[in-house]
Amino acid sequence: MDWPHDPDGEEGSEGGRKYGQAIIAKKIDEGEDFPLNKSEFVAEFGDDPIRLDYERVVSLSEIFEHVDGEEFGDFVELHKAVGKAMRDNGFWFYEGADKFVKGKKA
After folding, report:
1. Burial of 87 (0-12, 13-18, 19+ CB in 10 A)
2. Which long-range contacts (CB under 8 A, 24 or more apart) does 62-70 make?
3. Helix (H, G, I), strand (E, B), or coil: what is residue 26?
């Protein structure tokens, strides 16, 4: 895919590699973006590259296809939904992530 910007360039990650939810979180202004509408968010940022690990990059829209819910009241609610979608659908590369969330409601 032709990305609108380099995920490791200045616009994408401020000079250093950042991954997954950290990149998504940088697109959100907690004070102004909530409640956050998923469709509007994906319309604005859907084509943006999200680096999952050192060799895999997907679009934000690929991740959000799996995020449950259409509107999120605050950052924590959104962050939990995105994390669950990433873990459940192969977008989470951290080894042992299941040990940190097992038995917890995401």
Report:
1. middle
2. 62/91, 63/24, 63/89, 63/91, 64/38, 66/91, 67/38, 69/38, 70/37, 70/38, 70/39
3. coil
Q: In the numeric block, which tokens belong to residue 69?
A: 């819910």
Q: How do the pLDDT tens digits run along the chain, 106 residues long?
A: 565 555 655 554 555 566 778 888 889 999 899 999 999 999 999 999 888 887 788 999 999 999 999 999 999 999 999 999 999 998 887 665 556 565 555 5
pTM for the structure as a whole: 0.75
Residue 49: alpha-carbon gap to chain centroid: 10
Q: Which residue type, as a one-letter code, is found at position 61?
A: S
Matching residue, tokens 């590369």: 93
